[in-house]
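tl;dr need the bound structure. longer version: we got a ligand (glutamic acid) that a collaborator sent over and nobodys looked at where it sits. i said id run it. heres the input, straight from their email, havent touched it
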Amino acid sequence: MTKPRIHVLALGGTIATRPDASGAMQMGLGADDLVAAVPLLEGVAKIEAETVSRVGSHSLGIDLIHTLAAKIRGLETDGVVVTQGTDTLEETSFLLDLLLDLDIPVVVTAAMRNPSLTSPDGPGNLLAAVRVAADPWVYKNAKALGVLAVMLDEVYAAADVAKVHPTRINGFAATQAGPLAALVEDRVVPMTMPVRDAVVAARRKLGTAGGKPAPVALFWTSLDDALPLVLLMLAASDRVGYRGAVIAAMGGGHVPERAVDNVVRLAKAMPTVISPRTGGGPMLRKTYAGPSSEIALREAGLIWGGRLHPLKGRVLLETCLRAGLDRKAIAELFDTFG
Ligand code: GLU
Protein backbone atom coordinates (compact mmCIF):
# COMPACT_ATOMS: atom_id res chain seq x y z
CA MET A 1 0.00 0.00 0.00
CA THR A 2 1.38 3.45 -0.86
CA LYS A 3 1.99 5.64 2.14
CA PRO A 4 0.01 8.90 2.36
CA ARG A 5 1.86 12.15 1.77
CA ILE A 6 1.83 14.29 4.91
CA HIS A 7 3.06 17.88 4.85
CA VAL A 8 4.56 19.04 8.16
CA LEU A 9 4.56 22.82 8.66
CA ALA A 10 6.59 24.08 11.63
CA LEU A 11 5.86 27.44 13.25
CA GLY A 12 8.08 27.24 16.35
CA GLY A 13 7.16 26.74 20.00
CA THR A 14 8.60 24.56 22.75
CA ILE A 15 8.58 21.57 20.40
CA ALA A 16 11.17 23.46 18.29
CA THR A 17 13.44 24.80 21.02
CA ARG A 18 17.06 24.01 21.83
CA PRO A 19 19.26 25.19 24.70
CA ASP A 20 21.51 28.23 24.25
CA ALA A 21 24.91 28.62 25.94
CA SER A 22 23.25 29.54 29.25
CA GLY A 23 21.00 26.49 29.14
CA ALA A 24 17.86 28.56 28.50
CA MET A 25 15.64 27.27 25.72
CA GLN A 26 15.56 29.26 22.47
CA MET A 27 13.43 28.83 19.37
CA GLY A 28 15.63 27.26 16.73
CA LEU A 29 14.60 23.90 15.29
CA GLY A 30 12.90 23.75 11.93
CA ALA A 31 10.52 21.20 10.42
CA ASP A 32 13.41 19.05 9.06
CA ASP A 33 14.92 18.80 12.56
CA LEU A 34 11.59 17.79 14.10
CA VAL A 35 11.00 15.12 11.48
CA ALA A 36 14.58 13.81 11.66
CA ALA A 37 14.18 13.27 15.41
CA VAL A 38 11.35 10.76 14.84
CA PRO A 39 12.62 7.96 12.55
CA LEU A 40 9.35 6.03 12.97
CA LEU A 41 7.59 8.65 10.84
CA GLU A 42 9.12 7.04 7.77
CA GLY A 43 6.99 3.96 8.25
CA VAL A 44 3.78 5.97 8.60
CA ALA A 45 3.87 8.51 5.79
CA LYS A 46 5.87 10.14 3.04
CA ILE A 47 6.81 13.34 4.86
CA GLU A 48 7.38 16.74 3.31
CA ALA A 49 8.76 19.17 5.92
CA GLU A 50 8.56 22.95 5.71
CA THR A 51 9.55 25.62 8.23
CA VAL A 52 7.13 28.56 8.24
CA SER A 53 8.45 30.46 11.27
CA ARG A 54 10.52 29.95 14.40
CA VAL A 55 8.55 31.91 17.00
CA GLY A 56 6.88 31.15 20.27
CA SER A 57 3.15 30.84 19.77
CA HIS A 58 2.60 33.64 22.30
CA SER A 59 3.99 35.90 19.54
CA LEU A 60 2.20 34.46 16.52
CA GLY A 61 0.04 36.87 14.53
CA ILE A 62 -3.46 36.35 13.17
CA ASP A 63 -2.19 37.44 9.73
CA LEU A 64 0.38 34.65 9.80
CA ILE A 65 -2.38 32.10 10.43
CA HIS A 66 -4.28 33.49 7.43
CA THR A 67 -1.11 33.11 5.34
CA LEU A 68 -0.70 29.58 6.70
CA ALA A 69 -4.30 28.74 5.76
CA ALA A 70 -3.69 30.01 2.21
CA LYS A 71 -0.53 27.91 2.01
CA ILE A 72 -2.37 24.81 3.24
CA ARG A 73 -5.13 25.36 0.66
CA GLY A 74 -2.47 25.33 -2.07
CA LEU A 75 -0.71 22.13 -1.00
CA GLU A 76 -0.96 18.92 -2.99
CA THR A 77 -0.89 16.41 -0.19
CA ASP A 78 -2.98 13.83 1.65
CA GLY A 79 -2.77 15.51 5.04
CA VAL A 80 -1.21 18.38 6.96
CA VAL A 81 0.42 18.59 10.38
CA VAL A 82 1.15 21.99 11.91
CA THR A 83 3.61 22.16 14.81
CA GLN A 84 3.64 25.23 17.04
CA GLY A 85 3.78 26.39 20.65
CA THR A 86 1.10 25.30 23.07
CA ASP A 87 0.18 28.77 24.35
CA THR A 88 -2.15 29.76 21.53
CA LEU A 89 -2.92 26.38 19.99
CA GLU A 90 -6.55 26.62 21.13
CA GLU A 91 -6.89 29.89 19.17
CA THR A 92 -4.85 29.11 16.05
CA SER A 93 -6.44 25.68 15.51
CA PHE A 94 -9.92 27.22 15.77
CA LEU A 95 -8.96 30.00 13.35
CA LEU A 96 -7.67 27.40 10.88
CA ASP A 97 -10.93 25.51 11.34
CA LEU A 98 -12.86 28.66 10.41
CA LEU A 99 -10.67 29.33 7.38
CA LEU A 100 -10.20 25.87 5.88
CA ASP A 101 -12.78 23.71 4.17
CA LEU A 102 -10.70 20.80 2.94
CA ASP A 103 -11.15 17.12 2.20
CA ILE A 104 -7.83 16.25 3.84
CA PRO A 105 -6.95 16.05 7.55
CA VAL A 106 -5.33 19.11 9.13
CA VAL A 107 -3.82 18.39 12.55
CA VAL A 108 -2.14 20.82 14.95
CA THR A 109 0.29 19.60 17.60
CA ALA A 110 2.88 20.96 20.03
CA ALA A 111 4.89 19.98 23.10
CA MET A 112 4.52 20.79 26.79
CA ARG A 113 8.00 19.55 27.71
CA ASN A 114 11.02 20.91 25.88
CA PRO A 115 13.62 18.67 24.21
CA SER A 116 16.18 19.11 27.02
CA LEU A 117 13.88 17.63 29.67
CA THR A 118 13.52 13.98 30.55
CA SER A 119 10.68 12.47 28.49
CA PRO A 120 9.87 15.42 26.21
CA ASP A 121 6.50 14.95 24.52
CA GLY A 122 7.32 16.65 21.20
CA PRO A 123 8.51 13.59 19.26
CA GLY A 124 5.60 11.46 20.50
CA ASN A 125 3.08 14.20 19.71
CA LEU A 126 4.52 14.66 16.20
CA LEU A 127 4.35 10.91 15.57
CA ALA A 128 0.77 10.81 16.91
CA ALA A 129 -0.25 13.82 14.81
CA VAL A 130 1.17 12.25 11.64
CA ARG A 131 -0.54 8.94 12.49
CA VAL A 132 -3.83 10.81 12.82
CA ALA A 133 -3.31 12.78 9.59
CA ALA A 134 -2.41 9.53 7.77
CA ASP A 135 -5.23 7.46 9.26
CA PRO A 136 -7.82 6.15 6.75
CA TRP A 137 -10.81 6.82 9.06
CA VAL A 138 -9.65 10.37 9.70
CA TYR A 139 -9.04 10.88 5.97
CA LYS A 140 -12.51 9.55 5.12
CA ASN A 141 -14.13 11.86 7.69
CA ALA A 142 -11.77 14.82 7.28
CA LYS A 143 -14.46 17.29 6.28
CA ALA A 144 -16.76 16.35 9.14
CA LEU A 145 -13.93 16.36 11.69
CA GLY A 146 -12.50 19.75 10.69
CA VAL A 147 -9.17 20.86 12.06
CA LEU A 148 -7.90 18.60 14.84
CA ALA A 149 -5.51 19.02 17.74
CA VAL A 150 -3.45 16.05 18.88
CA MET A 151 -1.77 16.12 22.27
CA LEU A 152 -0.62 13.23 24.45
CA ASP A 153 -2.32 10.55 22.36
CA GLU A 154 -5.71 12.22 22.31
CA VAL A 155 -7.47 13.88 19.39
CA TYR A 156 -9.62 16.99 19.93
CA ALA A 157 -11.89 19.18 17.82
CA ALA A 158 -10.46 22.65 17.27
CA ALA A 159 -13.63 24.34 18.59
CA ASP A 160 -13.33 22.47 21.88
CA VAL A 161 -9.65 22.08 22.68
CA ALA A 162 -8.19 24.20 25.48
CA LYS A 163 -4.86 24.53 27.22
CA VAL A 164 -5.79 23.76 30.81
CA HIS A 165 -2.43 23.79 32.57
CA PRO A 166 0.69 25.93 32.09
CA THR A 167 3.33 23.21 32.49
CA ARG A 168 1.94 19.71 33.05
CA ILE A 169 2.45 17.18 30.26
CA ASN A 170 -1.31 16.57 30.13
CA GLY A 171 -1.92 20.27 29.59
CA PHE A 172 -4.76 19.94 27.03
CA ALA A 173 -8.38 18.88 27.23
CA ALA A 174 -11.76 19.41 25.64
CA THR A 175 -13.62 20.00 28.85
CA GLN A 176 -17.09 20.29 27.26
CA ALA A 177 -16.96 17.57 24.65
CA GLY A 178 -14.06 15.22 25.42
CA PRO A 179 -11.62 13.70 22.93
CA LEU A 180 -12.77 12.47 19.50
CA ALA A 181 -10.26 9.65 19.29
CA ALA A 182 -7.35 8.09 21.14
CA LEU A 183 -4.06 6.63 19.97
CA VAL A 184 -2.96 3.26 21.24
CA GLU A 185 0.00 1.20 19.97
CA ASP A 186 0.07 2.31 16.31
CA ARG A 187 -3.69 2.75 15.93
CA VAL A 188 -6.08 5.67 15.92
CA VAL A 189 -9.23 4.59 17.78
CA PRO A 190 -12.25 6.77 16.88
CA MET A 191 -14.67 7.48 19.72
CA THR A 192 -17.06 10.22 18.65
CA MET A 193 -17.75 12.82 15.97
CA PRO A 194 -17.79 16.56 16.73
CA VAL A 195 -20.95 18.62 16.25
CA ARG A 196 -19.74 21.28 13.84
CA ASP A 197 -22.92 22.70 12.31
CA ALA A 198 -22.17 26.16 13.70
CA VAL A 199 -18.58 26.15 12.38
CA VAL A 200 -19.74 24.98 8.96
CA ALA A 201 -22.46 27.66 8.85
CA ALA A 202 -19.96 30.29 10.00
CA ARG A 203 -17.49 29.29 7.32
CA ARG A 204 -20.11 29.76 4.63
CA LYS A 205 -20.55 33.37 5.72
CA LEU A 206 -16.88 34.04 6.33
CA GLY A 207 -15.36 32.70 3.09
CA THR A 208 -11.61 33.06 3.39
CA ALA A 209 -12.10 36.24 5.47
CA GLY A 210 -9.52 38.04 3.37
CA GLY A 211 -10.10 41.55 4.73
CA LYS A 212 -7.99 43.80 6.90
CA PRO A 213 -7.06 42.97 10.54
CA ALA A 214 -9.83 43.93 12.97
CA PRO A 215 -8.41 43.96 16.51
CA VAL A 216 -10.75 42.65 19.21
CA ALA A 217 -10.35 43.50 22.90
CA LEU A 218 -10.92 40.88 25.58
CA PHE A 219 -12.22 41.88 29.02
CA TRP A 220 -12.48 39.45 31.90
CA THR A 221 -15.17 40.18 34.47
CA SER A 222 -14.22 39.68 38.11
CA LEU A 223 -15.59 40.30 41.57
CA ASP A 224 -16.54 43.94 42.09
CA ASP A 225 -14.86 45.26 38.93
CA ALA A 226 -16.83 47.96 37.08
CA LEU A 227 -14.58 47.60 34.01
CA PRO A 228 -13.58 51.32 33.95
CA LEU A 229 -10.93 50.44 31.36
CA VAL A 230 -13.77 50.23 28.87
CA LEU A 231 -14.32 53.98 29.23
CA LEU A 232 -10.64 54.76 28.75
CA MET A 233 -10.58 52.57 25.71
CA LEU A 234 -13.62 54.24 24.19
CA ALA A 235 -12.22 57.71 24.93
CA ALA A 236 -9.06 56.82 23.02
CA SER A 237 -10.63 54.58 20.40
CA ASP A 238 -8.75 56.15 17.47
CA ARG A 239 -5.41 55.45 19.07
CA VAL A 240 -6.32 52.06 20.50
CA GLY A 241 -7.94 50.76 17.33
CA TYR A 242 -10.19 48.00 18.64
CA ARG A 243 -13.15 47.24 16.37
CA GLY A 244 -14.90 44.70 18.56
CA ALA A 245 -14.83 43.32 22.09
CA VAL A 246 -15.42 40.10 23.98
CA ILE A 247 -16.45 40.12 27.60
CA ALA A 248 -15.73 36.94 29.53
CA ALA A 249 -18.84 37.07 31.67
CA MET A 250 -19.74 35.32 34.87
CA GLY A 251 -21.86 32.19 35.09
CA GLY A 252 -24.65 31.98 32.56
CA GLY A 253 -23.83 35.43 31.09
CA HIS A 254 -23.77 38.02 33.88
CA VAL A 255 -21.56 41.01 34.64
CA PRO A 256 -21.22 42.87 37.95
CA GLU A 257 -24.09 45.33 38.28
CA ARG A 258 -21.64 48.22 38.56
CA ALA A 259 -20.15 47.24 35.18
CA VAL A 260 -23.45 47.25 33.27
CA ASP A 261 -23.32 50.88 32.07
CA ASN A 262 -19.81 50.46 30.73
CA VAL A 263 -20.61 47.18 29.05
CA VAL A 264 -23.72 48.59 27.39
CA ARG A 265 -21.78 51.68 26.28
CA LEU A 266 -19.19 49.37 24.73
CA ALA A 267 -21.89 47.37 22.92
CA LYS A 268 -23.25 50.60 21.43
CA ALA A 269 -19.78 51.57 20.20
CA MET A 270 -18.74 48.24 18.62
CA PRO A 271 -19.91 44.61 18.29
CA THR A 272 -19.49 43.18 21.79
CA VAL A 273 -19.75 39.50 22.54
CA ILE A 274 -20.59 37.96 25.90
CA SER A 275 -18.72 34.66 26.44
CA PRO A 276 -18.56 32.30 29.42
CA ARG A 277 -15.56 33.00 31.68
CA THR A 278 -15.96 29.41 32.90
CA GLY A 279 -14.15 28.53 29.69
CA GLY A 280 -17.03 27.22 27.59
CA GLY A 281 -20.50 25.77 27.64
CA PRO A 282 -23.86 27.23 26.64
CA MET A 283 -25.02 30.28 28.60
CA LEU A 284 -28.48 31.23 29.79
CA ARG A 285 -30.85 33.34 27.69
CA LYS A 286 -34.05 33.82 29.67
CA THR A 287 -33.68 32.85 33.35
CA TYR A 288 -32.65 35.87 35.45
CA ALA A 289 -34.18 39.32 35.78
CA GLY A 290 -32.40 42.57 36.76
CA PRO A 291 -30.04 45.00 35.01
CA SER A 292 -26.98 42.70 35.05
CA SER A 293 -28.85 39.58 33.97
CA GLU A 294 -28.61 37.78 30.67
CA ILE A 295 -32.12 38.96 29.75
CA ALA A 296 -31.23 42.63 30.22
CA LEU A 297 -27.83 42.36 28.55
CA ARG A 298 -29.31 40.64 25.52
CA GLU A 299 -31.99 43.33 25.26
CA ALA A 300 -29.28 45.99 25.53
CA GLY A 301 -27.58 44.68 22.39
CA LEU A 302 -24.87 42.40 23.69
CA ILE A 303 -24.12 39.56 21.26
CA TRP A 304 -24.49 36.14 22.85
CA GLY A 305 -21.28 34.15 22.34
CA GLY A 306 -22.74 30.67 22.80
CA ARG A 307 -20.71 27.77 24.04
CA LEU A 308 -17.34 29.02 22.79
CA HIS A 309 -14.46 29.76 25.16
CA PRO A 310 -13.87 33.56 25.27
CA LEU A 311 -10.56 33.09 23.44
CA LYS A 312 -12.32 31.29 20.62
CA GLY A 313 -15.13 33.85 20.67
CA ARG A 314 -12.50 36.54 20.18
CA VAL A 315 -11.01 34.65 17.21
CA LEU A 316 -14.46 34.27 15.67
CA LEU A 317 -15.34 37.94 16.17
CA GLU A 318 -12.05 39.07 14.60
CA THR A 319 -12.71 36.81 11.64
CA CYS A 320 -16.28 38.15 11.26
CA LEU A 321 -15.09 41.76 11.34
CA ARG A 322 -12.27 41.03 8.90
CA ALA A 323 -14.82 39.46 6.56
CA GLY A 324 -16.87 42.66 6.71
CA LEU A 325 -19.94 41.20 8.46
CA ASP A 326 -22.22 43.73 10.14
CA ARG A 327 -23.46 43.54 13.71
CA LYS A 328 -26.68 41.74 12.78
CA ALA A 329 -24.90 39.08 10.74
CA ILE A 330 -22.33 38.63 13.52
CA ALA A 331 -25.08 38.16 16.14
CA GLU A 332 -26.86 35.58 13.94
CA LEU A 333 -23.63 33.73 13.39
CA PHE A 334 -22.74 33.59 17.10
CA ASP A 335 -26.30 32.55 17.89
CA THR A 336 -25.76 29.22 16.15
CA PHE A 337 -23.06 28.36 18.71
CA GLY A 338 -25.71 27.82 21.38
N1 GLU B 1 5.27 30.20 25.01
C1 GLU B 1 5.85 29.28 24.07
C2 GLU B 1 4.92 28.95 22.91
O1 GLU B 1 3.74 28.92 23.02
C3 GLU B 1 6.28 28.02 24.72
C4 GLU B 1 5.13 27.21 25.21
C5 GLU B 1 4.99 25.94 24.46
O2 GLU B 1 5.23 25.79 23.30
O3 GLU B 1 4.60 25.00 25.15
O4 GLU B 1 5.41 28.71 21.86
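gonna send this back to them w/ a short note. The first strand starts at residue 5 and ends at 10.
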